[in-house]
Structures are given as structure tokens and as C-alpha cells.
Amino acid sequence: MPGDGHAGCGRRSGKTHWWQHQQGVPGRPHNFVCDPATLIVAFDRVAGNQGARTPGIDGLTVADVAEQVGVPGFLDDLRAGLKDGSFRPLPVRERQIPKPGGSGKVRKLGIPTIADRVVQAALKLVLEPIFEAEFLPCSYGFRPKRRAQDAIAEIHHFGTRGYRWVLDADIEACFDSIDHGALMDRVRLRVKDKRVLALVKAFLKAGILTELGDYQGTVTGTPQGGILSPLLANIALSVLDEHVMAPWKPGGVMSTRGKRDYRHTKGRPTWRLVRYADDFVVLVHGAREHTEALREEVAVALAPLGLRLSLAKTQVVHMSDGFDFLGFRIRWKRKRGTNKWYVYTFIAARPVRTLRAKIRALTHKTSQQDFASVLTRLGQIMRGWANYFKYAVAKRIFSKLDDFTWWRLVHMLRARHGWNWGQVRRHLAASGRWRIAADGVEYFRIEGVSVSRHTYRGNKIPTPWPPANPA
Fold it and tell me: What confidence tens digit (pLDDT) does each residue in 124-180 have?
């Protein structure tokens, strides 16, 4: 298990540091949570997050902590509380935000205090390498060096190889419903340090202060918004990964291509799980009835965790009908002008609607916001959106969005300056080409973003923690 710190720890940081220490020095993980170097790195991560300006129930932001107590004093007090066992996490502050898509539903976030965030970040630094060693490659969400595009690439990879029936699953209120006992049992399999286990349990049981000011205990779940919550959710849902992917283990009935081909000749299915946090699909090379049977199997695997599939949102679909996953629309269809069929990845309708709504809000004709600020914010939003979706069949959508945004800006300028169309031409095409800019900030043309396919990496995704004895 992880070892105690030593004199050099205060001058070192980085993930390799934690991993090398945990494998090379006998001791306890709690010593690493309390290590000054761990707490410094944890504080830096909390301070570098956008949520640093959002206070917990104590009303303190990172800036307040730095100004009132000073970072060294704050971390010293935190370390002392962790060492003597007096540290107790405070309830998280509830904040409700609307779910994307305009459904009218809200998502409940739990905002911890700065002190609790730092301790959670320290716990994550210590626990993540321990559990990453056994997480399966079919899981992509909130894991180092993995991203949503890897999950989409895996679906594309197996979809082109006959896995065309899809269990498109949705776990009902996953983060709110995880059974604490089942989760702690999973944590205990890898961590024996009782002080670390007590810290994790204390965060699970910290409770919630609602927007109305009422205290609610947390009997189940891990609040969304906490730094540790995604890791804990992955630890819990690794039960699902292991159950569904058991036949792919060495020696299993699907472990080699030959074994999988043999199953197909006998009319038996093979399947593959692709999971991103609590969103997942099961791809099936078989028939609809095989996929329906897997739905029941998945429900049985989730039940001990206190989780269940949403009846309304969980469906069995054929890839020729298409399905949405992580903002993408994936469909097996015939290539235009040919008789050949391919798996295509498009952009789903909902993220396009959401982006258009953001553009409309920024470019209202009566807006008095500084135009350079409008262009800057538009560039930030559209760059991030384009970089996420540029691995889909996106060129046509990018072009349409570019036209939409361009004309929104033109109408905004016309209303602001009272220009007629001749004046629009003189101002925007003065250099011989059409150009919208202000104070050195130029309009970002999303149609200029190049589109490519994200390479499927499978088991080749590297781990940031090297093995204890590299060959």
C-alpha cells in the first residue's frame, strides 16, 4: 500500500511522484493525503478550476482563503486536522441548474467548501492510481488520457465489424442513487487504510444544504460537483464493466477472434460495453432478442449498487435507425450513390440547438455589450464546440452555423450603427474580403475548422502512471 512521505516530498509534485511513492514505500495512503506536497498540488488544482470563485456553505472562495488566512496557514491547519482526525467535511451547497435540451428538468449540483475540495483533490491524487490499475479499457469518462471521442471511436470500430444492435441505456439518477454500502465495499477491496475509508465515507455522508436553507442527510449517492464524485462513480460502475466484459478476459469465451467467430457460426451473440461515466451502450453482434436479454442482465448487475435503468430512456435500437451518444448521432447507412453501407458519426440535433441558442443570446440586435467582447466570447464557445465535434461528419453543419452566426452579427451591427446594406459592404469588405472585427478581435470562422476521424486506440491508451518495475 502507499507509503509515508519523506523529507524530499515537499519539493516534488506530479502524478508520477505519487505513483512511484505508492508502489515503492511501505505505509498508508492517509500519510500521502496529509503530505504537504499533496495538499499543495491539490490546492493548486482547486484554485485553477473555474469553480474557485464559487463558495460553499461557509461563503469562502479561493481568493478569500488566500486573503484572510494565507495559503500556507490554510494548508497547515488542514493538514493538522487531517493528522489528528478532527477534520470533518461540511454539507455541500445545493445549486440547481437546467438540464440541456430545454426539457425543463434540473440537475442538482453539490458545491463543497474550499477546504473540502482540497481534501477531495488530495484523496483523488492518492486513490486514482490505485483504482486505475484495475479499471477496464471500456470505460472512458473522467479518466486520465481518455476522452469522449475515444468512446465514439470504439463504437465506430465495432459497429463496422457487425456489432449493429445497440442497448442504448440510461441509469436513472445515477449520482443520486449509488448505494453507500456497496460503494464502500468496492473501495475496501483496494484500500485497507481505515482513516482513508473514514474520510471517503464522511464525504458521502456530509449532507446537503438546499437552496431553501434546509439540511438534508445523504443516505445514497455522491453529489455531482464534488472533485471525488466522478472517481467514486467509476469505482461503483466498474461492477458493470466487469460483469458485461467478463467473457473478454483472457481465457473467456470471447477472448480471441477465433472464439468470437465460432460463437457467430453457432448463432450465439458477442457484445461489447462502451461506457462514459453513467452513460453507456452495449453493442451486440447478434439479434434483437440477444440485446433484450442483455438489458435484463445489465439491470441485475446494477441492482446491488442501488441503481436501475430508466424505462423511458433505455431502448434497444438497430444501428441503421441511429442513436445519440455523448452529443453524437451514430448511424449505419448506405453511402450515397453506392450500395455500400458504413457507420457514420454525425452531430446530434440537441447540441446544435443548444449552440444556436447561445449564439442568439450573445448577438441580440438590441444588445449593448462591447462588440469585441461579443466576438471574444463567440470565439471561445465556437472553438470549444468545434474541437469537440470536428471528428464527426461535420463540415455541412459547421458551414450552416457559420452562415447563421455571420448574419446574426451583420444584423447586430446594422441595428447598432443604423447602417444600410451599402454601408455594411463598405465597412465589412473594405480590405477586399469580407471581415468582421473589433479592437483587434476577429470573428472566428467555424467553417474553417478541419474535420477528421478520431483514431480508435483501444487498449493502447497509455496510463500516466508507469509500472513499478518497467522492463
Answer: 999 999 999 899 999 999 999 999 999 999 999 999 999 999 999 999 999 999 999
Residue with cell 492510481: 129
**pTM of the full predicted structure?**
0.89
How much is the average pLDDT of 31-38? 95
Query: Is 5 a residue whose pLDDT tops 80?
Result: no
Between 16 and 189, where is the model more confident? 189
Q: In this predicted model, what pLDDT tens digit does every residue of 455-464 receive, in sequence order?
A: 999 888 988 8
Three-class secondary structure assignment of the chain:
CCCCCCCCHHHCCCHHHHHHHHHHCCCCHHHHHHCHHHHHHHHHHHHCCHHHHCCCCCCCCHHHHHHHCCHHHHHHHHHHHHHHCCCCCCCEEEEEEECCCCCCCEEEEEECCHHHHHHHHHHHHHHHHHHHCCCCCCECCCCCCCCHHHHHHHHHHHHCCCCCEEEEEEECCHHHHCEHHHHHHHHHHHCCCHHHHHHHHHHHCCCEECCCCCEECCCECCCECCCCHHHHHHHHHHHHHHHHCHHHCCCCCCCCHHHHHHHHHCCCCEEEEEEECCEEEEEEECCHHHHHHHHHHHHHHHHHHCCCECCCCCEEEECCCCEEECCEEEEEEECCCCCCEEEEEEECHHHHHHHHHHHHHHCCCCCCCCHHHHHHHHHHHHHHHHHHHCCCCCHHHHHHHHHHHHHHHHHHHHHHHCCCHHHHHHHHCCCCCCCCEECCEECCCHHHCCCCCCCCCHHHCCCCCCCCCCC
What does the angle CA 223 – CA 225 – CA 230 come to, to the nearest 5 degrees? 75
Cβ atoms within 10 A of the Cβ of 343, count? 19
Euclidean distance between CA atoms 321 and 316, whole angstroms: 11
Q: Could you tell me if 91 and 51 are in contact, meaning their C-beta atoms sit under 8 angstroms apart?
A: no
Would you put residue 323 in left (φ > 0), alpha (ψ -120 to 50) or beta?
beta
Q: Is 317 left (phi over 0), alpha (psi -120 to 50) or beta?
A: beta
What number of CA atoms fall less than 13 Å from residue 436's CA on the CB side?
23
* pLDDT greater than 70 at residue 192: yes
As given in the structure block, the three cell numbers for residue 236 are 461503483
Section 264-271 average pLDDT? 97
Strands 106-111 and 270-276, bridge-based pairing: unpaired
